[in-house]
Structures are given as C-alpha cells and as structure tokens.
Amino acid sequence: MTRALALTLLRILIVVAACLFGVYWLVIRDMYYTPVEALRSGRGWPPASVHMVVPWPQDGRIDLVEGVTLALEELNAGNSPLAGRVRVEFVDEQVTERDYGAVARRIAADDSVVVVIGHESHERAIPSAVSYASSGILYLSPKATLPRLTEHAFQNVFRLVPDDADNSQALASYAQKQGWRRLGIFYGRFEQGEVLASWFSLNAVREGLTPLYFHSYLPAPDYRRQDFRALLATMRTEATDAILLADQLPWAAKVL
After folding, report:
1. Lowest-pLDDT choice from 89-98, 106-115, 160-169, 238-247
2. E-assigned strands of the chain?
3. What count of other Cβ atoms lies within 10 Å of the Cβ of residue 200?
4. Beta strands in 108-177 (DSSP E)
5. Per-residue b/e over 87-125, b at no fewer than 16 CB within 10 Å?
6. Residue 32's pLDDT band (cuts 50, 70, 90)
7. Are strands 138-141 and 242-246 parallel, antiparallel or unpaired?
C-alpha cells in the first residue's frame, strides 16, 4: 500500500464524516502517523480489498450508516485507485453491552481490518481507540468530543469534530465579542458536562470575562420528575449577561 493510496483513503473517510454531520471545517491537530509499512495495513491485507468496519448501534441515528453507504457508492462510481476495492462491514454495537471496549477488541482481532470509523458515544470510542492504536488500525471517531480521546497522541487515532476544549474556546470568544462579561455556568454532573464547563470557565477568564457562579446537578434517571427550581433560583442572586448550560438531552431541555 503506497503512501498516496493511504492519503487517498484518509480523504475519503473525511468526506464520509462531512456527509454525515455537515461539518464545514475539520480540526485534526497534530495529524501524523508512522510510515505505512509500520502500520498493520501493510501486513495480512487481502490484495484486492480494503476492509473497513463501521461499528454503530442499529437502534441509534442512522446518519453514519447512510453517510458511509453514500461515500462508498460515490467512490465505486469514480476512477479512484480505491474504486471497487473498499469492503465495508457494518457491526451492530449493542447499547446494552456494558463492556464498552468489547466490540473494538473483536474487530481488532481480525487481521484483515485496516480502518474503523464509528462508535457513537465517547464512552465507547475512548476505550476502543486503545485497541485500535495497539493493533495498528486507522481509527476515525466521527462524534466523540472529549479531549482525552486524542490526548494520548496515538499516531493512528483521529477525531473528525472539534473537541470540548475547542468548543469551549469558541463559546468564550463569542461571549467576549458580544460583550457578555458576567457569566453563569450550569452543568450536568457527568464527564462531558464537567469537562465542557471547566474548559469554558478557564477560557472565559482568559478572555477577560467573569464567571459569577459554577453550579452542577446530578441528572435524575427520570428527567420528567427532576425539579430544577432550587438550582435556577441562584440565577436571581447575580445579574448575568449569559449562561452556559453544559448538559445532554433530555435533561438540558428540562432545564431550559
């Protein structure tokens, strides 16, 4: 497999992600990987095909499956060196499986796998990245935004969306440009909410803004019965220009 062929494959996978999520700009910091001959893609590889695996839950959003299918159809219809050579395998990632890295370990055990794009949640993407990195499989995460997915500096693990550190910087810069200097922060007490809120607070201070309060809550199993009135009463104690809410659906909608 030549370097040009590997780079062509990377471009194709980036197009896949763009088709899925409408990403107009991609942030892949420190993009670098070892020479192709050092990756497992150069060993035990079927000569007539590139084996790509897409782990994604069948009961989740089907954007990724549709995007990969569309990209594959466009690839095969063109004159690329990879036309007719990419073999895509879709794997149902059961959301009820509590061992978040189990699917990745099964995929990594197949010596013919060269590329993986998928895993819907960061809980599954992060432990899966370890398996792919140790096996020399090129892994692209289309959705996970937690910074620690790529903080390990694995040479063959990439994200296709900005991470929460970048997102929080963009939010803080926007608040500064709007003249919103007095800020409040609410966040759900789970990893992504905590990370985004913490990074936003840090970046807000760097932008010369003032976080007035930093309050959290535990998301209840039944969001419909959770009462946020006591938490939101703290909004009346300080006059704020804007509030950051770092949470996920459906709890974020209930707070709003």
Report:
1. 89-98
2. 50-56, 86-92, 113-117, 138-141, 157-159, 182-188, 210-217, 242-246
3. 27
4. 113-117, 138-141, 157-159
5. bbebbebeeeeeebbbbbeebbeeeebbbbbbbbbbbbb
6. very low
7. unpaired
Burial 40-78 (b: 16+ CB within 10 A, else e): bbeeebeeeebbbbbbbbeeeeebbbebbbebbeebeee
Token pair of 22, please?
């409408």
Residues 124, 132 contacting (CB under 8 angstroms): no
**Range name among 18-22, 59-63, 170-174, 249-253 with the lowest pLDDT average:** 18-22
**Bridge partners (DSSP) listed for residue 216:** 187
Average pLDDT over residues 77-97: 84
Nearest to 199 by CA among 167, 225, 227: 167
* DSSP-derived pairing of the beta strands 50-56 and 86-92: parallel
Q: CA nearest 146: which of 208, 87, 93, 195?
A: 195
Q: Quickly count helices (H) and strands (E) in the chain.
A: 8, 8
- The residue type found at 6 is A
Token pair belonging to 60 = 């989740």
Q: Token digits for 18?
A: 């763009």
